[in-house]
Amino acid sequence: MLDVCVIGASGYTGAQLVELLLGHSEVQLNRVFVSAASADAGKPIGTLHGRLASSRLTLEALDEASLAMLADTMDIIFLATPHEASHQWMDQLSGGKARVLDLSGAFRLQDIQAFEQYYGFAHTSPEALSKTVYGLAEWYPQKISKANVVAVPGCYPTASLCALKPLTAQNLLDPAHRPVINAVSGVSGAGRKAALANSFCEVSLQSYGVLGHRHTPEIEAYCGVPVIFTPHLGNFKRGILATITVKLANGVGAAMLQQAYQQAYQDHPLVRLRNSWPKLDDVVHTPFVDLHFKADPESGYAVISAAIDNVMKGAASQAIQCLNLMIGQPAAKGLIPL
Ligand SMILES: NC(=O)C1=CN([C@@H]2O[C@H](COP(=O)(O)OP(=O)(O)OC[C@H]3O[C@@H](n4cnc5c(N)ncnc54)[C@H](OP(=O)(O)O)[C@@H]3O)[C@@H](O)[C@H]2O)C=CC1
Ligand SMILES: CC(=O)N[C@@H](CCC(=O)OP(=O)(O)O)C(=O)O
Q1: Same domain membership, residue 304 and residue 209
Q2: Is residue 43 domain-shared with residue 134, that is, in the same domain?
Q3: How does pLDDT run across 216-240, given as a tens digit for each residue?
Q4: Which family, according to UniProt (predicted)?
């Protein structure tokens, strides 16, 4: 059994990770952390997240002095913390025997200038960054299996990349036209802390981050083409629906699309090629990506739709896929019956 811990366990993605790890046969989870100043330190995790009410885990305050101890004693450390905290702690956490999976955006962009532009602070951990692997589980399994540090992708990039990569990997898109991604996310994507803009009476379907969201460079970096990405906040708790319009390269039609998606995902049970347009109810609280697409022979455009649960495939269940790859288990272990 591997010793694992979760830092940031009181948040939405952290608590989801705890739930998945408690049901995973290859690991033991005995320690869960919040920040040193947290008002939740000392509380049983089940008092914050009722679904974990039968767990005996208590949230511990993590002081900086304990980082090196965790790095030396744990096999795997999960960071479900704000970008700034992950950035600040990665050097120490990745300096011992532990392998680290970070759910934040702190180590996803290798371009540190783009990082500073989109995240608003300078990246000062080039060494940890250089050994980080991007954890898009279906696309980089070999690299993930050997990684000491994994940057688990963001929620919108997961939906967008799973939809786009079968096409960009085979050069099926017209390079003169950027893919246009419109995506709607539930409010849990903004995290658990209270904020006026995310409160019940304030949320009304609306775009945000237009032409400047930090997930734009992340999507571009890992599909290799520039995109137009527009996120929207919807008045529901969980899930992302991304609708993507692309211009196909000359001569590419429905049959080639079908072949590209089948080839990409035939050995990946968590990506489901659906016969109808995906809907959130089918994926919420699951580790699946549902995809559907249609090509228009007249215009040469195609529309692809992807649905995921932002807290699961967009964060925690994708982190479990990466864990499985790192420990030589099937990627879907602990997520679906195998
Ligand atoms: N929600 C989502 O759908 C997704 C989120 N992510 C990313 O995952 C990470 C976690 O997100 P999410 O679970 O939504 O966030 P939450 O706000 O729900 O939880 C954040 C957690 O981190 C702890 N924390 C906050 N500040 C610090 C700090 N300075 N040091 C240590 N711990 C701290 C919080 O507890 P406390 O403040 O009490 O210490 C809490 O446990 C973020 O980087 C987010 O961007 C990625 C993909 C999807
Ligand atoms: C609805 C909402 O606010 N969503 C978040 C994205 C959450 C996520 O996956 O992204 P990171 O891990 O990159 O933070 C946002 O747009 O900032």
Answers
A1: yes
A2: yes
A3: 999 999 999 999 999 999 999 999 9
A4: Belongs to the NAGSA dehydrogenase family. Type 1 subfamily.
Same domain, 14 and 100: yes
Structure tokens, 248 = 């196909």
Same domain? For 180 and 286 the reply is yes
Domain count, the chain: 2
Which ligand is closest in space to the CA of residue 184? Answer: 2
Q: What CATH number should be reported for the domain holding residue 307? A: 3.30.360.10
Which of 155, 193, 204, 310, when mutated, tests ligand 2's pocket best, judged by the most ligand atoms within 8 Å of its CB? 155
Whether the CB of 107 sits within 6 Å of ligand 1: no
ipTM of this complex > 0.95?
A: yes
CB atoms within 10 A of CB 149: 23
CA pair distance 205, 202, nearest whole angstrom: 10
- pLDDT score, position 254: 97
Beta-carbon contacts of residue 71 (< 8 Å; ≥ 6 apart): 77, 92, 93, 94, 95, 96, 97, 98
* Catalytic-residue membership of 322: no
Q: Which domain holds residue 294?
A: 155-311
Q: Closest Cα to residue 242, out of 308, 286, 153, 172?
A: 308
